[in-house]
Amino acid sequence: MRSRFLDTPVKHFYPNYSSLEYLRLCACFRDLRGICWGAEDPEMLIEIRELEHHAVDFDEHLAPGVIDLGPDVQQTGELGARGQAQLVQEHHGKHHVINDIRVTGEVITKVEVACARCLEPIVQSVDRKFDLLYRPQGADAGREEMSVTTAEAEVSYYQGEGLLLEDVLREQVLLALPIKAICREDCRGLCPHCGHNLNQEQCNCAEPVEDPRWSALKDLREKLN
């Protein structure tokens, strides 16, 4: 015998059913985990079938470690993300419809990366607004090559029945970081011989003998600088 509680529409218990919290609650009901306290949170999946009925708002506050940023980036503070996802349908003929997902919002956090010269840790602040369009994987297959415009540069792709919000946030945090972060402009880096941090103390390694054949190029570089 099924419980009447599980048969009751979730929105009767959760009036703000256009939010990501509502989607999570739906996932709990589908997996029979909604009545299990302490259960692991479902993935932050924005589903096409939900977007077909309404836009989905999100307001996330994620502790370090919830989103994997890779081995070179460590989240040091809470990650805050607010925004909205909505469905954008492209009609191709009478029967073919492509479901695009538009995601707009902002992500704010702090992360730690290594200085590209001396490898000492640096804390970087992230505050990035985004307006993205995600198309189904393979939707553009067979299209002729086109020049990438500013708008097209913001297009990505999703697979399956929806889009993981954590993938969106991970991508935006990583894009907000410089390719090579340095702790300060005059960072001296590491000694190429012994690996000593030259910002802290000069090492005793002998200076390499300069090849006189490069002297002309050295003079030119100094003039350009």
Molecular structure report:
By secondary structure, the chain is α+β, with helices and mostly antiparallel strands. It folds into three domains: 1-42, no CATH class; 50-185, no CATH class; 188-225, no CATH class. The protein has five helices and eight strands; from the N terminus they run ααβαβββββββαα. The longest helix is centred in the C-terminal third of the chain and has 12 residues, at 165-176. The termini are far apart. Mean pLDDT is 78; it is low at 1-18, 26-42 and 145-150.
User: Helix- and strand-based class?
Assistant: alpha+beta
Q: Unreliable stretches, pLDDT < 50, 5 or more residues?
A: 1-18, 26-42, 145-150
Q: Over the alpha carbons, how many angstroms does the gyration radius reach?
A: 25 Å
Number of domains: 3
β-strand percent reads: 25-35%
**N to C succession of SSEs:** HHEHEEEEEEEHH
**Overall morphology:** elongated
Largest sheet: 6 strands, mixed
Level of helix content? 10-25%
| Count of individual beta strands | 8
Mean pLDDT comes to 78
Distance between the termini: 81 Å
Summarize the structure.
The protein is an alpha+beta fold and 225 residues long. The protein has three domains: 1-42, no CATH class; 50-185, no CATH class; 188-225, no CATH class.
Helices, strands, pairings?
Elements (H helix, E strand, L loop, with lengths): L3 H4 L12 H11 L14 E3 H4 L4 E7 L11 E2 L3 E14 L3 E19 L6 E16 L18 E4 L3 E3 H12 L38 H10 L1
Which descriptors would you attach to this protein?
225 residues, alpha+beta, 3 domains, 18% helix, elongated
